[in-house]
Design goal:
This protein is α/β, with parallel strands linked by helices. Helices cover 44% and strands 10% of the residues.
Length: 327
């Protein structure tokens, strides 16, 4: 059970569907949100998939997203209308295990091209992942009643988009899928994919160089989303596990993190834009640390430090450089 889950009302889901409808050019069909346009209609499960579809598809695609801007992706519940609209699309692009409601809908959907980003790179087990923030014994108790297959899925960290190298691998797979499904525009998809690959390679180089020489390699975050990024650039992510974002850390956990902060030269507790900063600020105050935003890029809102994937990743790099004492 995800301790961060909050109930999403029908109003919010309806608003998300309405938002999707509102972003499209005028069409006579009620199912225009996901399909029946004169373009290659792609339904993306959440922002990192939406960004890939838009960058690779360019002018030839009509992209809609199932996750409303500002909505925590894991909380997503699909309306019957959204599920029906998905079946009208030419392709659906998603990341299996991140959003159970989406996985279920796609399994039941007859959409012709189903692109699972999780199959386009290698997922790894980083211990505490999004689905079991509780960690340790508490998480094991919560998961005990779940099916074994679900536990296996939950053991793999889904946050691959935060590693530019793995994200580029996914982008290449998406491009090939687009080329196969819409061969009339294959040349443009290839050209767009190559341009995106160069941007992601540049981002990877910036991270490698920016984080190569730092005072510390350890950073604190209240969300264990940065395992791939940490592994790629030789860092250590220390997540504040077992806590609801709205609650305060236990005295024992505060003491443990205070000691680690001193031992490893940690200066900053990171929080994110889509959940409360209360936990991070409580820990920071008690441990004498600063706070800053490290965005897991699950969605772009007016609080995001950038208006797209690349801009926010560059902002994240600056935040890490400052927190880690980059030379």
């Amino acid at each position: 059970m995800n301790v961060r889950r909050r109930h999403i009302s029908g109003i919010a889901v309806t608003a998300a569907a309405a938002l999707g409808l509102g972003t499209l050019s005028a069409c006579s069909s009620d199912s225009a949100a996901a399909g029946n346009t004169d373009k290659f209609d792609v339904v993306a499960s959440f922002y990192p998939m939406q960004y890939l579809a838009q960058q690779i598809g360019g002018e030839h695609v009509n992209v809609t997203t199932l996750t409303e801007p500002g909505q925590e992706p894991h909380d997503l519940e699909l309306s019957a209308k959204q599920t029906a609209e998905m079946g009208e699309a030419d392709a659906v692009l998603y990341l299996k295990s991140l959003q159970p409601a989406v996985d279920e809908a796609i399994t039941q959907s007859d959409v012709q091209t189903k692109i699972d980003a999780a199959t386009l790179t290698t997922l790894e087990d980083h211990g505490s992942v999004e689905h079991d923030h509780a960690g340790g014994e508490h998480a094991e108790e919560e998961h005990a009643e779940e099916k074994h297959s679900e536990e296996e899925e939950h053991a793999l960290d889904p946050h691959v988009w935060l590693d530019p190298v793995k994200y580029a691998e996914i982008a290449e797979g998406v491009a090939k899928a687009f080329e196969k499904a819409d061969p009339d525009h294959a040349a443009d998809y290839r050209k767009n994919a190559d341009a995106l690959a160069k941007k992601l390679a540049g981002l990877n180089t910036a991270y490698k160089e920016g984080l190569a020489n730092t005072d510390t390699k350890v950073f604190f975050t209240n969300h264990a989303a940065f395992g791939y990024l940490a592994e790629r650039y030789g860092l250590t992510q220390e997540a504040i596990n077992g806590l609801d974002p709205e609650s305060e850390p236990s005295p024992a956990r505060i003491k443990e993190l205070q000691e680690e902060a001193k031992a490893d030269g940690v200066t900053t507790v990171f929080y994110e834009t889509l959940v409360s900063d209360k936990t991070a600020k409580t820990l920071a105050k008690d441990a004498g640390l600063k706070t800053d935003v490290l965005d897991p890029l699950e969605g772009i809102t007016d609080k995001s430090k950038g208006d797209d994937y690349l801009a926010v990743m560059e902002s994240n790099l600056k935040a890490l450089e400052a927190a880690l004492g980059a030379k």
